[in-house]
Design goal:
By secondary structure, the chain is of the alpha/beta class. It has helices spanning about 5-30, 55-75, 95-105, 130-135, 135-145, 190-200, 200-205, 215-225, 225-230, 235-240, 275-295; strands at about 45-50, 75-80, 115, 120-125, 170-175, 180-185, 230-235, 240, 260-265.
Length: about 300
């Protein structure tokens, strides 16, 4: 074989090798960001309950017991930050919910869902996993309330009618007075971080909204299409049933029925005529009794 022919073949081999390497490089860049190695033991769900420093220790113990029992069934984990852990400036301490969720996401970067649950709630039906009961795409498709006023009764801004369950990052309920940020689900990701950053904007905290972060949420959902495009409203009792029948909140239609997932003493912490501890204890005892009777079967 002549020297010139050998050089020509080597040139072709070099060109082919460079082409293969180029294709490999391009594909590795395209797909490497979508292939994430999730550490073994990473929980699919983190249950986040922000605790107030003035809650009675025995009450906190009951709340934690309820969530821990539920989490242990499905390999979920829990997170119990204190509201005083976060600087909300002069805004009401309830705003601490937002940095608490950001904190939970930072500590658990591979977890898929964050279930924010009020301390005045009890998970009554532990047989319902968060994913199969709500977040599985087909299930969420069937639950989504589409083309519905975001803020009842007559907001001009409606939920989108074309969205699918696999594109949803924020799941909320809504009662007769508005959105319910005391119990909701947030999917991990860049959008979730953006959403929390917008919600916690110092400007909104300075507005002195009547319902603090609740009214701020209603504002950004209605006037930020980027947020509305990732939001799903679902029926109230799917995620957030109430202990009491309050007409303005939706009355008996949103009051707890046997088999519902979660029950909440809505507004008990803001009403001087109500006692959250006394109101929640019968529900805790019912959950405890159901748990004991099933264990004996």
């Amino acid at each position: 074989m002549s020297s010139s022919l050998r050089k020509q073949r080597l040139k072709y081999v070099a060109i082919i090798a460079c082409g293969v390497l180029a294709v490999y490089f391009i594909f590795s860049k395209l797909f490497s960001s979508s292939i994430v190695s999730i550490p073994y033991g990473t929980p699919e769900v983190i249950i986040v309950t922000v605790l107030e420093p003035d809650l009675k220790p025995e009450y906190v113990t009951k709340i934690k017991e309820n969530r821990e029992e539920y989490a242990s069934r499905y390999g979920y984990k829990t997170f119990y930050p204190n509201s005083t852990d976060y600087d909300v400036g002069s805004a009401p301490k309830s705003w601490a919910l937002i940095p608490a969720l950001r904190h939970a996401m930072t500590l658990n970067p591979y977890t898929t869902y964050f279930f924010s649950l009020s301390p005045h709630s009890i998970i009554m039906n532990p047989t319902l996993s968060l994913t199969s009961h709500i977040m599985a795409p087909q299930r969420l498709d069937s639950l989504m309330l589409k083309d519905k006023p975001v803020v009842p009764p007559d907001s001009v801004i409606h939920t989108f009618s074309h969205l699918k369950g696999d594109k949803i990052d924020l799941v909320l309920t809504q009662d007769g007075e508005g959105l319910c940020p005391e119990s909701f689900i947030l999917r991990q990701g860049d959008w979730a971080k953006f959403f929390l950053d917008v919600w916690f904007d110092p400007l909104y905290r300075s507005y002195n909204f009547q319902k603090a972060e609740g009214h701020a949420l209603e504002h950004i959902v209605q006037w930020h299409p980027t947020i509305l495009t990732k939001l799903s409203l679902i029926p109230q009792r799917t995620l957030n049933s109430y202990t009491v029948d309050i007409a303005s909140r939706g009355g008996s239609e949103v009051t707890y029925l046997d088999g519902d997932f979660v029950v909440r003493a809505v507004g008990c912490e803001r009403d001087p005529n109500r006692n959250c501890y006394e109101e929640m204890d019968p529900w805790y005892q019912q959950w405890k009794g159901d748990r004991r009777s099933k264990a004996e079967q």
